[in-house]
Amino acid sequence: GLLLAAFSASVCSLLAITVDRYLSLYNALTYHSERTLGFTCAMVLLLWLLCLGVGLLPLLGWNCLRDQSACSILRPVTKDNAAVLAVTFLLLFALMMQLYLQICKIAFRHAQQIAVQHQFIATAQATSTRKGLSTLSLILGTFALCWIPFAIYSLVADSSYPVVYTYSLALPATCNSLINPIIYAFRNPDIQKSLWLACCGCVPSTFSSRPRTSSDV
Protein backbone atom coordinates (compact mmCIF):
# COMPACT_ATOMS: atom_id res chain seq x y z
CA GLY A 1 0.00 0.00 0.00
CA LEU A 2 2.80 2.43 0.85
CA LEU A 3 4.54 1.52 -2.40
CA LEU A 4 1.43 2.19 -4.47
CA ALA A 5 0.81 5.48 -2.65
CA ALA A 6 4.40 6.63 -3.21
CA PHE A 7 4.44 5.69 -6.89
CA SER A 8 1.04 7.31 -7.45
CA ALA A 9 2.16 10.48 -5.71
CA SER A 10 5.30 10.63 -7.87
CA VAL A 11 3.39 10.27 -11.13
CA CYS A 12 0.51 12.55 -10.12
CA SER A 13 2.89 15.23 -8.87
CA LEU A 14 4.64 15.33 -12.23
CA LEU A 15 1.27 15.49 -13.96
CA ALA A 16 0.19 18.34 -11.68
CA ILE A 17 3.43 20.23 -12.41
CA THR A 18 2.86 19.71 -16.14
CA VAL A 19 -0.72 21.01 -15.96
CA ASP A 20 0.41 23.96 -13.83
CA ARG A 21 3.19 24.83 -16.26
CA TYR A 22 0.76 24.65 -19.17
CA LEU A 23 -1.77 26.91 -17.44
CA SER A 24 0.96 29.41 -16.50
CA LEU A 25 1.64 29.89 -20.20
CA TYR A 26 -1.88 29.47 -21.57
CA ASN A 27 -3.46 31.84 -19.00
CA ALA A 28 -0.44 34.04 -18.35
CA LEU A 29 -2.47 37.19 -17.57
CA THR A 30 -4.75 35.62 -14.92
CA TYR A 31 -2.51 32.81 -13.67
CA HIS A 32 -1.04 34.59 -10.62
CA SER A 33 -4.43 35.85 -9.45
CA GLU A 34 -6.08 32.44 -9.77
CA ARG A 35 -3.27 30.23 -8.40
CA THR A 36 -3.14 31.51 -4.82
CA LEU A 37 -1.21 29.86 -2.00
CA GLY A 38 -4.42 28.49 -0.50
CA PHE A 39 -5.51 27.01 -3.83
CA THR A 40 -2.11 25.38 -4.31
CA CYS A 41 -2.10 23.88 -0.80
CA ALA A 42 -5.64 22.55 -1.32
CA MET A 43 -4.65 20.90 -4.62
CA VAL A 44 -1.55 19.30 -3.05
CA LEU A 45 -3.64 17.99 -0.15
CA LEU A 46 -6.27 16.62 -2.53
CA LEU A 47 -3.55 14.98 -4.61
CA TRP A 48 -2.04 13.20 -1.61
CA LEU A 49 -5.44 12.08 -0.35
CA LEU A 50 -6.12 10.58 -3.76
CA CYS A 51 -2.77 8.78 -3.75
CA LEU A 52 -3.34 7.48 -0.22
CA GLY A 53 -6.68 6.15 -1.46
CA VAL A 54 -4.84 4.25 -4.20
CA GLY A 55 -2.50 2.87 -1.54
CA LEU A 56 -5.49 1.50 0.38
CA LEU A 57 -6.74 -0.53 -2.60
CA PRO A 58 -4.90 -3.76 -1.55
CA LEU A 59 -6.68 -3.59 1.82
CA LEU A 60 -10.03 -3.06 0.07
CA GLY A 61 -9.84 -6.21 -2.04
CA TRP A 62 -7.18 -5.55 -4.69
CA ASN A 63 -5.10 -8.49 -3.49
CA CYS A 64 -4.33 -12.08 -4.41
CA LEU A 65 -4.25 -13.51 -0.90
CA ARG A 66 -6.95 -16.05 -1.77
CA ASP A 67 -5.35 -17.06 -5.09
CA GLN A 68 -1.57 -16.87 -5.17
CA SER A 69 -1.48 -17.77 -8.88
CA ALA A 70 -3.23 -14.47 -9.69
CA CYS A 71 -0.48 -12.37 -8.09
CA SER A 72 1.40 -9.84 -10.17
CA ILE A 73 4.94 -8.56 -9.67
CA LEU A 74 3.38 -5.96 -7.34
CA ARG A 75 2.40 -8.54 -4.73
CA PRO A 76 -0.25 -8.73 -3.39
CA VAL A 77 -1.93 -6.82 -6.27
CA THR A 78 -3.51 -9.15 -8.82
CA LYS A 79 -2.34 -9.27 -12.43
CA ASP A 80 -5.56 -7.70 -13.70
CA ASN A 81 -5.37 -4.82 -11.23
CA ALA A 82 -1.67 -4.30 -11.97
CA ALA A 83 -2.56 -4.12 -15.66
CA VAL A 84 -5.15 -1.45 -14.86
CA LEU A 85 -2.53 0.58 -12.98
CA ALA A 86 0.02 0.17 -15.78
CA VAL A 87 -2.44 1.20 -18.51
CA THR A 88 -3.55 4.18 -16.41
CA PHE A 89 0.08 5.24 -16.09
CA LEU A 90 0.65 4.97 -19.84
CA LEU A 91 -2.46 7.10 -20.46
CA LEU A 92 -1.20 9.72 -17.99
CA PHE A 93 2.16 9.70 -19.74
CA ALA A 94 0.43 10.25 -23.10
CA LEU A 95 -1.47 13.17 -21.54
CA MET A 96 1.75 14.69 -20.21
CA MET A 97 3.40 14.33 -23.61
CA GLN A 98 0.48 16.12 -25.27
CA LEU A 99 0.65 18.93 -22.69
CA TYR A 100 4.41 19.26 -23.16
CA LEU A 101 3.91 19.57 -26.92
CA GLN A 102 1.41 22.35 -26.32
CA ILE A 103 3.85 24.01 -23.90
CA CYS A 104 6.57 23.94 -26.54
CA LYS A 105 4.25 25.55 -29.09
CA ILE A 106 3.21 28.30 -26.67
CA ALA A 107 6.78 28.94 -25.51
CA PHE A 108 8.00 29.15 -29.10
CA ARG A 109 5.22 31.61 -29.94
CA HIS A 110 6.02 33.71 -26.86
CA ALA A 111 9.72 33.73 -27.79
CA GLN A 112 8.84 35.04 -31.25
CA GLN A 113 6.63 37.78 -29.80
CA ILE A 114 9.32 38.85 -27.30
CA ALA A 115 11.92 38.90 -30.08
CA VAL A 116 9.74 41.19 -32.18
CA GLN A 117 8.81 43.53 -29.32
CA HIS A 118 12.36 43.95 -27.97
CA GLN A 119 14.10 43.59 -31.34
CA PHE A 120 16.34 40.79 -30.13
CA ILE A 121 18.66 39.27 -32.66
CA ALA A 122 17.51 35.99 -34.15
CA THR A 123 20.34 33.97 -32.62
CA ALA A 124 19.36 35.02 -29.06
CA GLN A 125 15.75 34.05 -29.70
CA ALA A 126 16.75 30.71 -31.16
CA THR A 127 19.06 29.99 -28.22
CA SER A 128 16.33 30.75 -25.67
CA THR A 129 13.78 28.61 -27.48
CA ARG A 130 16.21 25.72 -27.86
CA LYS A 131 17.01 25.83 -24.14
CA GLY A 132 13.33 25.65 -23.24
CA LEU A 133 12.71 22.76 -25.61
CA SER A 134 15.81 20.90 -24.40
CA THR A 135 14.75 21.25 -20.75
CA LEU A 136 11.27 19.91 -21.45
CA SER A 137 12.69 17.09 -23.57
CA LEU A 138 15.18 16.18 -20.83
CA ILE A 139 12.47 16.03 -18.13
CA LEU A 140 10.05 14.06 -20.29
CA GLY A 141 12.76 11.73 -21.61
CA THR A 142 14.06 10.99 -18.10
CA PHE A 143 10.53 10.29 -16.91
CA ALA A 144 9.93 7.90 -19.82
CA LEU A 145 13.21 6.03 -19.33
CA CYS A 146 12.55 5.58 -15.61
CA TRP A 147 8.90 4.59 -15.71
CA ILE A 148 7.88 3.02 -19.03
CA PRO A 149 10.04 -0.15 -18.69
CA PHE A 150 8.51 -0.83 -15.27
CA ALA A 151 4.97 -0.20 -16.56
CA ILE A 152 5.43 -2.52 -19.56
CA TYR A 153 7.00 -5.18 -17.34
CA SER A 154 3.96 -4.98 -15.06
CA LEU A 155 1.77 -5.81 -18.05
CA VAL A 156 3.66 -8.90 -19.22
CA ALA A 157 5.12 -10.37 -16.01
CA ASP A 158 3.59 -12.17 -13.04
CA SER A 159 4.67 -13.39 -9.63
CA SER A 160 6.57 -16.34 -11.13
CA TYR A 161 9.20 -13.99 -12.62
CA PRO A 162 12.45 -13.51 -10.63
CA VAL A 163 12.11 -10.79 -8.02
CA VAL A 164 15.45 -9.28 -9.06
CA TYR A 165 13.88 -8.19 -12.37
CA THR A 166 11.15 -6.31 -10.50
CA TYR A 167 13.60 -4.52 -8.23
CA SER A 168 15.96 -3.63 -11.08
CA LEU A 169 13.10 -1.92 -12.96
CA ALA A 170 11.41 -0.41 -9.91
CA LEU A 171 14.62 1.26 -8.72
CA PRO A 172 14.91 3.70 -11.67
CA ALA A 173 11.22 4.55 -11.29
CA THR A 174 11.80 5.34 -7.64
CA CYS A 175 14.90 7.42 -8.39
CA ASN A 176 13.02 9.55 -10.92
CA SER A 177 11.74 11.73 -8.09
CA LEU A 178 15.38 12.34 -7.11
CA ILE A 179 16.55 13.08 -10.64
CA ASN A 180 13.91 15.71 -11.47
CA PRO A 181 14.95 18.23 -8.78
CA ILE A 182 18.54 17.94 -10.01
CA ILE A 183 17.42 18.73 -13.57
CA TYR A 184 15.43 21.73 -12.38
CA ALA A 185 18.33 22.94 -10.25
CA PHE A 186 20.69 22.96 -13.22
CA ARG A 187 18.22 24.38 -15.74
CA ASN A 188 16.01 26.84 -13.82
CA PRO A 189 17.54 30.20 -12.81
CA ASP A 190 15.02 30.76 -9.99
CA ILE A 191 16.05 27.52 -8.29
CA GLN A 192 19.72 28.38 -8.84
CA LYS A 193 19.18 31.73 -7.12
CA SER A 194 17.54 30.00 -4.16
CA LEU A 195 20.44 27.55 -3.88
CA TRP A 196 23.00 30.40 -3.96
CA LEU A 197 21.08 32.26 -1.27
CA ALA A 198 20.77 29.14 0.90
CA CYS A 199 24.43 28.15 0.55
CA CYS A 200 26.34 31.45 0.64
CA GLY A 201 23.74 34.16 1.21
CA CYS A 202 24.44 35.90 -2.09
CA VAL A 203 23.40 35.82 -5.73
CA PRO A 204 25.95 36.15 -8.57
CA SER A 205 25.58 39.28 -10.67
CA THR A 206 24.97 37.17 -13.77
CA PHE A 207 21.55 36.18 -12.41
CA SER A 208 20.37 39.69 -11.58
CA SER A 209 21.32 41.07 -15.00
CA ARG A 210 19.86 38.19 -16.96
CA PRO A 211 16.39 38.81 -18.50
CA ARG A 212 13.71 36.22 -17.89
CA THR A 213 12.66 34.28 -20.96
CA SER A 214 10.09 31.66 -21.86
CA SER A 215 12.71 28.94 -21.43
CA ASP A 216 12.82 29.66 -17.69
CA VAL A 217 9.23 28.48 -17.18
TrEMBL record:
Tell me where it resides: Cell membrane
In the UniProt record, does the keyword rRNA processing occur? no
**InterPro entries this protein is in?**
GPCR_Rhodpsn, GPCR_Rhodpsn_7TM, GPR_3/6/12_orphan
Q: Which UniProt keywords apply?
A: Cell membrane, G-protein coupled receptor, Glycoprotein, Lipoprotein, Membrane, Palmitate, Phosphoprotein, Receptor, Transducer, Transmembrane, Transmembrane helix
Record has 4Fe-4S as a keyword: no
Q: Which residues cross the membrane?
A: 6-25, 37-62, 82-101, 133-152, 164-186
What's the main place this protein lives? membrane
Q: GO CC: one term?
A: plasma membrane
Using the record's annotation, list all stretches that form the G-protein coupled receptors family 1 profile domain: 1-184
UniProt-recorded Gene Ontology molecular function terms = G protein-coupled receptor activity
Gene3D superfamilies per the UniProt record, alphabetical: Rhodopsin 7-helix transmembrane proteins
Pfam families cross-referenced by the UniProt entry:
7tm_1 (PF00001)
What is the membrane topology noted in the UniProt record heading this document?
A: Multi-pass membrane protein
Q: Which residues form the signal peptide?
A: none
Q: Which PANTHER family match?
A: G-PROTEIN COUPLED RECEPTOR
Describe the family membership recorded for this protein in Swiss-Prot or TrEMBL: Belongs to the G-protein coupled receptor 1 family.
Q: What is this protein called?
A: G-protein coupled receptor 12
State the organism named in the record. Charadrius vociferus (Killdeer)
